[in-house]
Amino acid sequence: MNASLASxxxxxxxxxxxxxxxxxxxxxxxxxxxxxxxxxxxxxxIAERGIAVQWGNGLTPRCPPPKNHGSFxxxxxxxxxxxxxxxxSGQYMIINTDFLDLWSDVICSPFEAVENLNVDxxxxxxxxxxxxxxxxxxxxxxxxxxxxxxxxxxxxxxIEHRIEHLVEAGYAGRIRMLKGDVKTAFRH
Length: 188
Known about the structure:
The protein is built from eight helices and four strands. By secondary structure, the protein is mostly helical. The chain folds into two domains: 1-52, no CATH class; 53-187, no CATH class. A hairpin with a 2-residue loop joins strand 1 (9-11) and strand 2. The longest helix is centred in the middle third of the chain and has 13 residues, at 76-88.
């Protein structure tokens, strides 16, 4: 078997080394909708080139890979279904473990399964890729936080304050809130 990690495509036209987190980000569209935004240039740079993270020393590939969490084995049929769906959509690349002999620099992390609310876990669970295990030799342990932009999130209370401000200011239009599932939000 002869396969180079860099020569393989996850999906047609989408190479593995493409570091952009969301291939659907369109720099021209961002220019249009975010005109005047003070941080537009760095955002466009991220959309076009992605973020090249840096890694510290100490992370070593393990063969065989670490075992998955007990929840993964407990809900195996549901997790298999979820992983197949994620593979088909391009979210995960699932390979045969024989490739690990050829790709010596690939780091494997365990999976776990989390039950969804109001859903039978034998039918559907949410797979979680545990990047913080095993302790001391996990992907998160080697990640250099200072190599990526610092993210600052405003509390959900900011939405509440904005709605209250609009109401108090006499806004006559409809106020709508977009809701969705967390799984889809984190994919993008």
